[in-house]
Amino acid sequence: MTENVTIATVAGEMPARFWLPPTGHGPGIVVLQEIFGVSDYIQRRAAQLAEAGYVVVAPEIFWRLGVTEPVEGDDALQQGMALVQRLDWQAAVTDAAATVEWLRGRDEVTGGVGALGFCFGGGLGYNLAAHLESDGDAPLDALVSYYGSALPGLHDSLTVTAPSLHHFGLADSFIDTETVRRIEASLTAQPDTVVETYAGADHAFDNDDMQWHDPTSSTLAWATTMEFLRERLPVA
């Protein structure tokens, strides 16, 4: 079951997509989008999480820019990158935090709450986790980040103690291998943090709508993600 919902923020009502599992209840997961918005790919992953027993919400993080539909077309990458350049990053972090609070307040959520982010959303998820901890709010119960594009500028300045899993390709066109290894060394110095790398995998290797999709790495990373979530956010 999926529906459109809105989430109260300091700047107004943020649109989001909401999924319930077959049981109607379970732990919660906030899914954070790539630069293309809450695309068909993001919705497919969210639906898979719901089918696995999670209550899932995917906020439209570009809503303050007036964009609440997926970025599509031949110039989607350029459009998405332009939107990120216009985005107020800290406002996006607080909007993500408002989404966590909203999800925790839902009656359908009967366990902890985690976050799963891809690319732009992977870095946002890491900053979200650090923000919740530094503000004294309840920390995330789990964080999964796929090739977090902002992590090169965040990993050595923000600390996250929530259990976290990070995926990186070693042929990433945007995050070179040396940078991936620096991020890995920094993150794994923190407790309960795992970094998985994939030889030959490019950026966005999980997105089966993109030319960078790597089916083998995608399948392996998703299996690792689900195992991690089952341990940290068990479904009753």
Walk me through this protein's architecture.
- With 236 residues, the chain is an alpha/beta fold.
- It has a single domain, classed as 3-Layer(aba) Sandwich (Rossmann fold).
- It has six helices and eight strands; from the N terminus they run E-E-E-H-E-H-H-E-H-E-E-H-E-H.
- The protein has helices spanning 40-51, 76-86, 89-104, 120-134, 177-187, 215-232, and strands at 2-9, 12-19, 26-32, 55-59, 109-118, 142-146, 164-169, 193-198.
- It has an eight-stranded mixed sheet, with helices on both faces.
- Helix 3 (89-104) packs across helix 4 (120-134).
- The protein starts with a strand and ends with a helix.
- This is Dienelactone hydrolase family protein.
- Pfam families: DLH (PF01738).
List keywords for this structure.
8-stranded mixed sheet; 236 residues; AB_hydrolase_fold; single chain; Rossmann fold; alpha/beta; Dienelactone_hydrolase-like; hydrolase; 6 helices; 35% helix; hydrolase activity; Dienelactn_hydro
Summarize the structure.
The protein is of the alpha/beta class. 35% of the residues lie in helices and 23% in strands. The protein has an 8-stranded mixed sheet, sandwiched between helices.
Tally of discrete structural domains? 1
| Beta strand count | 8
CATH class: Alpha Beta
Determine the strand fraction and express it as a percent band.
Answer: 15-25%
Strand order of the largest sheet: 1-2-4-3-5-6-7-8
Protein name: Dienelactone hydrolase family protein
Organism: Terrabacter terrae
Keywords: Hydrolase
Pfam family, one: DLH
